[in-house]
Design brief:
The chain is mostly helical. It is 78% helix and 0% strand. It has six helices and no strands. It starts with a helix and ends in a 12-residue tail after the last helix. The relative contact order is 0.13.
Protein backbone atom coordinates (compact mmCIF):
# COMPACT_ATOMS: atom_id res chain seq x y z
CA UNK A 1 0.00 0.00 0.00
CA UNK A 2 2.78 2.43 0.87
CA UNK A 3 4.67 1.59 -2.33
CA UNK A 4 1.70 2.38 -4.55
CA UNK A 5 1.17 5.72 -2.77
CA UNK A 6 4.84 6.58 -3.16
CA UNK A 7 4.77 5.74 -6.88
CA UNK A 8 1.70 7.87 -7.53
CA UNK A 9 3.02 10.88 -5.62
CA UNK A 10 5.58 12.10 -8.22
CA UNK A 11 2.99 11.87 -10.99
CA UNK A 12 0.51 13.79 -8.87
CA UNK A 13 3.12 16.42 -8.03
CA UNK A 14 4.06 16.81 -11.70
CA UNK A 15 0.41 17.16 -12.68
CA UNK A 16 -0.11 19.81 -10.02
CA UNK A 17 3.00 21.80 -10.88
CA UNK A 18 2.36 21.76 -14.63
CA UNK A 19 -0.45 24.29 -14.16
CA UNK A 20 1.90 26.77 -12.54
CA UNK A 21 3.88 26.89 -15.80
CA UNK A 22 0.88 27.88 -17.94
CA UNK A 23 -0.07 31.47 -18.68
CA UNK A 24 -3.11 31.31 -16.41
CA UNK A 25 -1.06 29.75 -13.61
CA UNK A 26 1.56 32.48 -13.88
CA UNK A 27 -1.13 35.17 -13.80
CA UNK A 28 -2.74 33.65 -10.71
CA UNK A 29 0.64 33.37 -8.96
CA UNK A 30 1.41 36.99 -9.85
CA UNK A 31 -2.01 37.98 -8.51
CA UNK A 32 -1.33 36.21 -5.21
CA UNK A 33 2.07 37.93 -4.91
CA UNK A 34 0.54 41.34 -5.73
CA UNK A 35 -2.12 40.78 -3.07
CA UNK A 36 0.55 39.90 -0.53
CA UNK A 37 2.59 43.04 -1.32
CA UNK A 38 -0.53 45.22 -1.15
CA UNK A 39 -1.52 43.56 2.13
CA UNK A 40 1.88 44.33 3.65
CA UNK A 41 1.74 47.96 2.51
CA UNK A 42 -1.83 48.49 3.69
CA UNK A 43 -1.11 46.81 7.03
CA UNK A 44 1.84 49.15 7.58
CA UNK A 45 -0.14 52.30 6.81
CA UNK A 46 -3.92 51.84 7.05
CA UNK A 47 -5.15 48.50 8.38
CA UNK A 48 -8.73 49.31 7.35
CA UNK A 49 -8.00 48.65 3.68
CA UNK A 50 -6.15 45.38 4.18
CA UNK A 51 -9.29 43.21 4.24
CA UNK A 52 -9.70 43.61 0.46
CA UNK A 53 -6.23 42.21 -0.14
CA UNK A 54 -6.81 39.32 2.25
CA UNK A 55 -10.09 38.32 0.59
CA UNK A 56 -8.66 38.61 -2.92
CA UNK A 57 -5.54 36.64 -1.99
CA UNK A 58 -7.68 33.86 -0.50
CA UNK A 59 -9.96 33.76 -3.56
CA UNK A 60 -7.00 33.75 -5.95
CA UNK A 61 -5.41 30.92 -3.97
CA UNK A 62 -8.66 28.93 -4.06
CA UNK A 63 -8.94 29.34 -7.82
CA UNK A 64 -5.26 28.46 -8.23
CA UNK A 65 -5.76 25.22 -6.29
CA UNK A 66 -8.97 24.45 -8.21
CA UNK A 67 -7.23 24.83 -11.56
CA UNK A 68 -4.02 23.16 -10.37
CA UNK A 69 -5.78 20.02 -9.13
CA UNK A 70 -8.16 19.88 -12.14
CA UNK A 71 -11.21 20.22 -9.93
CA UNK A 72 -12.78 22.43 -12.59
CA UNK A 73 -13.01 19.41 -14.92
CA UNK A 74 -14.67 17.29 -12.23
CA UNK A 75 -17.27 19.84 -11.11
CA UNK A 76 -19.18 20.69 -14.26
CA UNK A 77 -22.07 22.50 -12.54
CA UNK A 78 -20.07 25.71 -12.10
CA UNK A 79 -18.87 27.59 -15.15
CA UNK A 80 -15.31 28.16 -13.96
CA UNK A 81 -14.09 30.58 -16.65
CA UNK A 82 -17.04 32.90 -16.05
CA UNK A 83 -16.71 32.72 -12.26
CA UNK A 84 -12.99 33.50 -12.55
CA UNK A 85 -13.80 36.34 -14.97
CA UNK A 86 -16.33 37.94 -12.62
CA UNK A 87 -14.01 37.46 -9.65
CA UNK A 88 -11.19 39.31 -11.39
CA UNK A 89 -13.53 41.99 -12.77
CA UNK A 90 -14.96 42.75 -9.32
CA UNK A 91 -11.46 42.67 -7.80
CA UNK A 92 -10.13 45.07 -10.43
CA UNK A 93 -12.97 47.52 -9.79
CA UNK A 94 -12.58 47.30 -6.01
CA UNK A 95 -8.79 47.70 -6.19
CA UNK A 96 -9.17 50.71 -8.49
CA UNK A 97 -11.66 52.37 -6.13
CA UNK A 98 -9.51 51.59 -3.09
CA UNK A 99 -6.34 52.87 -4.75
CA UNK A 100 -8.06 56.12 -5.74
CA UNK A 101 -9.31 56.61 -2.17
CA UNK A 102 -5.88 55.88 -0.72
CA UNK A 103 -4.09 58.17 -3.18
CA UNK A 104 -6.54 61.02 -2.56
CA UNK A 105 -5.89 60.81 1.19
CA UNK A 106 -2.48 62.28 1.80
CA UNK A 107 -0.39 59.91 3.84
CA UNK A 108 2.96 58.35 4.48
CA UNK A 109 5.11 56.57 1.92
CA UNK A 110 3.73 53.06 2.54
CA UNK A 111 0.18 54.35 2.00
CA UNK A 112 1.17 55.86 -1.34
CA UNK A 113 3.04 52.70 -2.36
CA UNK A 114 0.00 50.60 -1.43
CA UNK A 115 -2.23 52.82 -3.55
CA UNK A 116 0.11 52.60 -6.52
CA UNK A 117 0.45 48.81 -6.16
CA UNK A 118 -3.34 48.45 -5.92
CA UNK A 119 -3.76 50.51 -9.08
CA UNK A 120 -1.11 48.37 -10.78
CA UNK A 121 -2.88 45.22 -9.67
CA UNK A 122 -6.16 46.57 -11.04
CA UNK A 123 -4.53 47.30 -14.38
CA UNK A 124 -2.84 43.89 -14.40
CA UNK A 125 -6.17 42.24 -13.76
CA UNK A 126 -7.74 44.20 -16.61
CA UNK A 127 -5.00 42.99 -18.94
CA UNK A 128 -5.37 39.46 -17.57
CA UNK A 129 -9.09 39.63 -18.30
CA UNK A 130 -8.35 40.43 -21.92
CA UNK A 131 -5.86 37.58 -22.19
CA UNK A 132 -7.52 34.84 -20.15
CA UNK A 133 -11.18 35.78 -19.84
CA UNK A 134 -14.05 34.34 -21.82
CA UNK A 135 -14.33 35.72 -25.30
CA UNK A 136 -16.47 38.82 -25.12
CA UNK A 137 -17.00 41.39 -27.87
CA UNK A 138 -15.97 44.08 -25.36
CA UNK A 139 -12.42 42.77 -25.01
CA UNK A 140 -11.49 42.03 -28.60
CA UNK A 141 -8.13 43.51 -29.53
CA UNK A 142 -8.22 46.45 -31.83
CA UNK A 143 -6.92 45.82 -35.32
CA UNK A 144 -4.01 48.03 -36.32
Amino acid sequence: MADSERLSAPGCWAACTNFSRTRKGILLLAEIIFCLVILICFSASTPGYSSLSVVEMILATIFFVIYMCDVHTKIQIINWPWSDFFRTLIAAILYLITSIVVLVERGNASKIIAGVKAAGAALKRERGLRIQGPSLPLFLPESV
